[in-house]
Write a structure and sequence with these properties.
The protein is α/β, with parallel strands linked by helices. Among the domains are: 105 residues, Succinate dehydrogenase/fumarate reductase flavoprotein, catalytic domain (Flavocytochrome C3, Chain A, domain 1); 99 residues, Methane Monooxygenase Hydroxylase, Chain G, domain 1 (Up-down Bundle), CATH 1.20.58.100. 36% of the residues lie in helices and 16% in strands. The chain is globular and about 70 Å long. The structure holds flavin-adenine dinucleotide and succinic acid.
């Protein structure tokens, strides 16, 4: 028997939860699938806040202009304008759910500033904005009678009409649509089939393609890999945003030191204690992220140092504890009192600007498949995301997606009553599980060394060769073994790495977050990189 929903949502971050809530409000029966505990998401760790026009000294045109400048020529201006103009309404809905942004007094919100913003416009809840948003949305979703949430449930692959017919009769129909998903119950190891009229991919980004990242462990690009395998094109995957300032430590998961700290006056210093950002950009510490991350990378390479310093000692302890309580505590746990000591910082992989190509209704090229949040590429970010624009994008696109899905289902589209059960691979020799751990490390090291902040064609080709080998090995392993989360994630990480390298090789210029030594200038022609699906 196949489980069935009007709409299935993969992911319980800001995108998945706000979409699920909106869709259920329209009367649809919604299932949310999430691979760990429901709060575990990039959303839950967001610090800086949501960029949205609320103040009398700001306006939509300024926010649009800042976004276009950061995006370095590749933003879709129509998308930028629509998302920015829709922002205040969608943020108000969060406030109506009980979210309380930090205030300076009864009348006014405290507005943060980050790189690339010409105005203070970032609504925040101290430095724990994501946690407050996640809590408010989870509470709304939990209380909704039309929403069921399935934790520890891993979406493996989409079931599509084309693939199904191909398996049944060997020939594929011209028309395609999504019919449901195969999911792994992580706690029991059982694979279930779930049918749906529409599927929303809200599975977030892919920070764990790299060994050093600000992202929690869920960020393994599963949705992008799934969509691509289902025949949906992906776009602009070369644009990986490295956050300039994460707390230097030997661990892979790097704690973020929000850009808002620089917004409140923190200075970057080299190992001799000298400032250097003004040699790279007139906006100095508050230049867009690509510029700051590249400058730090260049300074570290010049001096051979493992980190640089961030200095906010100009502010006193009481202020820092109030404005940045989680950063203050995390640094103190490492013996760093940020009101007295400089913070050792390094860049780390942070955000994926590319992803599954969608229009403003969150529709992908596959009927019934929608995508919103970090998994999607709408055209808002172009070649580099403006800080704090992603929570905004997720909220607006989740709303647009809910309206579009409702219309799609009203046309009579529903999930099939029955779908074929999953056929598992033979259980292989458990000794060979070392293949998973070894390949996991090898992949991410290759991505860090050859597809990092500064690239070259030779480095990208080196990465491509290694990824090809890893892909062949893991695909064989995938068909022979019983599926488990670590294997599924590795398969997806390899797929996403392939797509990143393919897009990076297509881009024969340096623009935004993609910098290559072989083409240091911008090309005259503006273009998005697209990887069409292979059959
Ligand atoms: P996520 O919040 O990452 O949620 C993805 C969900 O999908 C998770 O529930 C995950 O478990 C689930 N999932 C993934 N794969 C599967 C699968 N195969 N099966 C089932 N479930 C799956 N942006 C801003 O705008 N402002 C900020 O201040 C800010 N600060 C940030 C700070 C940090 C440390 C980080 C990491 C990011 C920050 N960002 C910020 C970026 C922003 O948080 C994310 O882009 C945004 O939260 C993404 O939301 P999402 O809903 O698309 O994905
Ligand atoms: C930060 O607080 O620096 C992160 C903001 C973002 O990624 O948008």
């Amino acid at each position: 028997m196949t489980d069935s929903f009007d709409v299935l949502v993969i992911g319980s971050g800001i995108a998945g939860l706000s979409f699920a809530y909106k869709t259920a409000q329209l009367g649809l029966k919604v299932g949310i699938i999430t691979k760990k505990q429901q709060a575990e998401s990039n959303t839950n760790y967001a610090q800086g806040g949501i960029a949205v026009v609320t103040s009398a000294t700001d306006d939509f045109d300024l926010h649009v202009r800042d976004t276009l400048i950061a995006g370095d020529g590749l933003c879709d201006e129509n998308v930028v304008r629509q998302i920015i103009e829709e922002g205040p309404k969608r943020v108000k809905e969060l406030i109506d759910l009980g979210l309380e942004f930090s205030r300076i007094n009864e009348e006014s919100y405290s507005l943060g500033k980050e790189g690339g913003h010409s105005r203070r416009r970032i609504l925040h809840v101290a430095d724990m904005t994501g946690k407050a948003i996640e809590t408010a949305l989870l509470s709304a979703v939990e209380q909704h009678p039309l929403i069921d949430t399935f934790e520890h449930t891993f979406a493996i692959d989409l079931i599509t009409l084309r693939k199904l017919k191909q398996l049944e009769s060997g020939s594929a129909p011209a028309d395609d649509r999504v019919l449901g998903i195969y999911v792994l119950d992580v706690l029991t190891g059982e694979v279930r089939t779930v049918s749906a009229g529409a599927v929303m991919l809200a599975s977030g980004g892919a920070g764990h393609v790299y060994p050093f990242t600000s992202n929690p462990s869920i960020a393994t690009g599963d949705g992008i890999a799934m969509a691509y395998r289902a025949g949906v094109p992906v776009e602009n995957m070369e644009f990986i945003q490295f956050h300039p300032t994460t707390l230097y430590s030997s661990s892979e998961k790097r704690f973020l030191i929000s850009e808002a700290v620089r917004g409140e006056g923190a200075l970057l210093r080299d190992l001799s204690g000298d400032r250097f950002m003004d040699q790279y950009d007139e906006r100095a510490e508050l230049a867009p992220r690509d510029i700051v991350a590249r400058a730090i990378d260049a300074e570290m390479k010049k001096s051979g140092s493992t980190h640089l310093w961030l200095d906010i000692t100009e502010k006193d302890e009481a202020y820092l504890k109030g404005r940045f309580p989680s950063i203050f505590a995390a640094c103190l746990a490492q013996g760093i009192n940020i009101s007295k000591d400089w913070i050792p910082v390094v860049p780390a992989a942070h955000y994926l600007c590319g992803g599954v190509a969608t229009n403003l209704d969150a529709e992908t090229s596959l009927p019934g498949l929608y995508a919103c949040g970090e998994v999607a590429c709408t055209g808002l970010h172009g070649a580099n995301r403006l800080a704090s624009n992603s929570l905004l994008e997720a909220l607006v696109m989740a709303n647009n997606g809910a309206v579009a899905v409702d219309e799609f289902l009203k046309k009579g589209n529903s999930g099939p009553e029955d779908l074929p059960a999953w056929v598992d691979g033979e259980v292989g020799d458990p000794d060979e599980r070392v293949v998973i751990t070894h390949n996991w490390e090898e992949l991410r090291k290759a991505m860090w060394d050859y597809v990092g902040i500064v690239r070259s064609t030779k480095r990208l080709r080196r990465a491509q060769k290694r990824i090809e080998n890893l892909s062949a090995e893991i695909n064989e392993f995938y068909w022979d073994f019983k599926v488990e989360p670590r294997l599924l994630e590795l398969r997806n990480l390899i797929q996403v790495s392939e797509l990143i390298v393919e897009c990076a090789l297509q881009r024969k210029e340096s623009r935004g977050l993609h910098y290559t030594l072989d083409y240091p200038d911008k090309a005259d022609q503006l273009r998005n990189t697209i990887v069409p699906p292979r059959d």
